[in-house]
Write a structure and sequence with these properties.
heterodimer, A: alpha/beta, Rossmann fold, CBS-domain, 2 domains, six-stranded mixed beta sheet, four-stranded antiparallel beta sheet, 14 helices, B: mainly alpha, MetI-like fold, 0% strand
């Protein structure tokens, strides 16, 4: 249930030149309302520059950027930024302000009444798994890296922005914490229905979080597609190399056992050491279990309900069908 | 010092307690005025140097020259124009605080982490709000380090202004030298040192109260 709808963000032929250098070259794409749109590419491809043009930290040389149809280039930059959430890799919490004051930054700038600010701060602190009474009055230096990243995201969401810009917000923490932060963020984003433009250089993060992925190279958009589509049909060799030679396995991670074609149920006694799989499991996990049990097949069960048999050739067919033609 | 005279004549101390107190007051007054006026001027020049970076060189160069002029020479140069006055004393004292204060204010503001500034701008702070709400509060520790050095330096220099009729504790030092009277000399020198130590300790306390985030654990 989305509490609010995010806004649609549309870039039209956006170009940024620095003298002779073209940092971003006629970039056009639309981030649909309430979705996460990931910008990804090698360093220097223009993804961060593109992101920072949306809230006008960088002024485009030409082109238009529309939020719900309104051209941001005609708005006051300061006012615009207060309506757009902004979270960056180094977080940039204010060291001299408490966690509560940090989260309250934009609501204060917008002149919310004190009671509403306090309620919103406590709500957000709870949402990121903090006990408000215990954490509100601490300073950033008293928090771990992962906790600071969480506060950074909460601060960006504080004023209920319809759009959020995030520049590698989880890159500076260890993989275990990153995974947890990504899951928490997905939940928050779905619940609040915010449109997110998200920059990363990590293809796994892009596939996990993105509803759409924009792959950029040398300032240009190479492909813009949902993750499954990108893995199944990379537009060219560059994209194929970028998503990795294991893109088949990555694609399996997006599909569930329940969505795959199954053989009809067979007497379990004839299946030997076949593992039991649940419909909610990803095909990648299913494959991993089958390989670990040295079995050609897996039994798919939903509780007591025996649904059928998944075989290696089903998975192989899926992998073959996705190869570019 | 005449032979047989003790290093400190305690009876002199007792009979001059009132005058000593008065000179301590004068010493503090000269110091506070010098540091306060110095801070105001330095603040303005620092903001200018931060806004127009190419002015930073000329500003530190000029205040650096002021800083290197021997204090005795500076007062001698000023007397024909401003006389034996508080003004003469303060012009000298203030000019010695500028270099230290400007350097620390500018360094403090420039030392604010770039990502903090970036986040502030990205969330919709205006340039003025970034200066007053982010940069200056975060520069406070470095600025205070400058204020402490400027204060200690000024307290020492105030003694020199005794030569133009001011001086605070410096009065007792000149008195002691003129009369070969060790008690006055010791009162003046030791008094000035003690004032400096006390002032520094108080400033540390003020700084801790103003920057709670630097020692939260």
């Amino acid at each position: 249930m989305a509490a609010r709808r995010g806004a649609t963000v549309e870039l039209r032929e956006v170009t940024k030149r620095y003298g002779e250098t073209v940092a971003v070259d006629r970039l056009s794409f639309t981030a649909p309302a309430g979705r996460i749109c990931v910008l990804i590419g090698p360093s220097g491809c223009g993804k961060t520059t593109s992101l920072r043009m949306v809230n006008r930290l960088i002024e485009p040389t030409s082109g238009e950027i529309l939020i719900d149809g309104h051209n941001v280039l005609q708005e006051d930059p300061t006012e615009l930024r207060r309506r757009i959430g902004y979270a960056i890799q180094q977080v940039g919490l204010f060291p001299h302000r408490t966690i509560g004051q940090n989260v309250a930054t934009v609501p204060e700038l917008l002149g919310w009444p004190a009671a509403r600010i306090r309620a919103r701060v406590d709500e957000l602190l709870s949402l990121i798994g903090f006990e408000p009474a215990r954490m509100r009055d601490r300073y950033p230096a008293q928090l771990s890296g992962g906790e600071r990243q969480r506060v950074g995201v909460a601060r960006a969401m504080a004023a209920e922005p319809p759009v959020m810009l995030m520049d590698e917000p989880f890159a500076a923490v260890d993989p275990i914490v990153r995974e947890r932060l990504q899951n928490e963020f997905l939940q928050l984003q779905r619940a609040q229905g915010i449109t997110v433009i998200f920059v990363t250089h990590d293809i796994d993060e892009a596939i996990k979080l993105g509803d759409r992925i924009a792959i950029m190279r040398a300032g240009r958009l190479v492909q813009y597609a949902p993750p499954a589509e990108l893995l199944a049909h990379p537009a060219d060799d560059f994209v194929a190399r970028f998503v990795g030679s294991d893109r088949g396995l990555k694609r399996l991670a997006l599909l569930t056992v329940g969505g795959a074609e199954l053989d009809p149920p067979v007497d379990p006694s004839r299946l030997g050491g076949a593992p039991v799989l649940s419909p909610a499991m990803t095909l990648r996990d299913a494959l991993s279990q089958m390989l670990a049990s040295e079995a050609q097949v897996g039994m798919v069960r939903d509780g007591d309900n025996y649904l059928g048999v998944l075989t290696l050739s089903h998975i192989g067919r899926l992998l073959r069908s996705e190869q570019p033609t | 010092m005449t032979a047989g005279e003790p290093l400190i004549r305690w009876d002199w101390l007792a009979s001059h307690a009132g005058e000593i107190g008065q000179r301590v007051g004068q010493h503090l007054e000269l110091t506070v005025i010098a540091v306060a006026v110095g801070l105001i001027i330095s603040f303005g020049l620092s903001l200018l140097a931060l806004r127009i970076p190419r002015l930073y060189g000329p500003i530190t160069w000029t205040t650096g020259i002021l800083y290197t002029i021997p204090s005795l020479a500076l007062f001698a140069l000023l007397v024909p124009y401003t006389g034996l006055s508080l003004l003469t004393a303060e012009i000298g004292l203030v000019s010695y605080t500028l270099l230290i204060l400007i350097r620390n204010i500018v360094a403090g503001v420039r030392g604010v982490p770039e990502e903090v500034r970036e986040a502030a701008r990205g969330m919709g702070y205006t340039d003025r709000q970034i200066l007053w709400r982010v940069e200056l509060p975060l520069a406070l520790a470095v600025i205070f380090a400058g204020i402490r050095v400027a204060t200690i330096t000024t307290i020492g220099l105030v003694t020199v202004t005794a030569l133009i009729g001011e001086g605070g504790m410096g009065y007792f030092i000149t008195l002691g030298i003129q009369l070969f009277f060790s008690t006055a000399l010791i009162v003046g020198a030791l008094g000035s040192v003690l004032l400096a130590m006390l002032a520094d300790a108080s400033l540390v306390l003020v700084q801790r109260a103003l920057t709670p985030w630097t020692h939260a654990r």
